[in-house]
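User: I'm writing a short report section on ligand binding and want a predicted complex to refer to. Could you take this sequence and zinc ion and write out the structure as tokens? A short remark afterwards would be nice.
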Amino acid sequence: MTDATPGRFSAHYEYEQTREMPLDSFAYLRDSLATDPLAIAALARPEIPEPPRAGEGGRDCRSCTADDRDYLWTDQHWRIHTIAEPLGLFFVMVNPREHYEELPDLPPARAAELGPLLQRMESALRALGDVGQVHTHKWGDGGAHLHLWQIVRPLGMLQARGVGLTVWLKALPPLPTEVWEAAGRDFARQMALGGGTAHR
Ligand SMILES: [Zn+2]
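Assistant: Sure. The structure tokens for the complex follow:
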């Protein structure tokens, strides 16, 4: 990606200096921590070019070579999976069958499918029940093959609202395997009602 305006953002930070962060909006911290500012790591200087991500440019890309049976649901152009080892919150990830890396890389036909597909996914997750909110994320900092996340915030888990959700994803004990697998199966079958193939 070209850098049209070098330093447009990065020129405005102070590097290698520690600072304190106000915590009044971070409901997931212990009460004792939330009353005092938290010292956070000094901001490291920009690393340019950035190191390659897994599967960058389609080389050794596991999303490209994975079998449909590794997924919960697939159709002609899209595949949806989750991980085998449960985490504390249920989530699914969708990626195009072909190797595209960023949203602007999608050809118009794929881009036009993505909105309705995300709607179907969120509906299928909400149909699992006990869902307060479904958070859609696109990070792409780990794997290069385009993938979007949908993470379930359980009904009533108000401390996990907003950006705190991803902290709880790692901080909560893993869901039981049978609960995780049943959610994946129910999600896949709900998706298949609208087309495509459930693999669970
Ligand atoms: Zn790929």
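A remark for your report: DSSP finds five helices and eight strands in the chain. Strands lie at 19-21, 38-40, 73-74, 78-81, 91-96, 131-137, 148-154, 197-198.
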